[in-house]
Design a protein that fits this description.
elongated; alpha+beta; about 25% strand; transmembrane; single chain; 5 helices; transmembrane helix; six-stranded antiparallel β-sheet; DUF4234 domain-containing protein
Amino acid sequence: MAKPQLFWLILILLLTCFMPCGFLIWYESEDPAFIPNANYNFILNWILPSLTVLTIGYLFSRYKNFAQVKESLDEHFIAEGRLVKYFTLLFSPVFIYFYFWTFINIPIQLWAQYRLADYWSQEYLLVEATTCNSDYEAHCVELKFADLANEETHSVRWYLDKAELLTLKDKRVNLVGEQSYFGYIINEIQW
């Protein structure tokens, strides 16, 4: 009876470890031109930090309440030194937040990319247009848009019309795409 439980435990462990890595690779290969809305920002600014704090609280309670866990971690930190201990304590919240971001927000953006939705068009101010760094294709341009209604800025990478877009700094452009529940996917930029 222990073998099926061990199989499911290993399967769950592999999924929780490698699924975020797969999502991150898929996200980097697709690179959706995504502008978030209030629903996405709520998840990003409230849900993810709350999950991070709850997870840290749970892990801290495990550390405080279970002698075996506390003893094991204390031995590890003594053997590895203070630098490892402080590095682990300082950067654990960052790693936990990044884990939740890859597990929640990347699938939302990819779902918006592949889901057919309502037509959307809105005028934005193109604040900045720069070439992408060497990690991206040669015809990639990094665009920063300012929403005319609320002054929020959004940054996307665009792979078409690089030469023209680099000359349009501080001009109004019309973004055309699809509207999803969590944001907008840009399909075309009109100027």
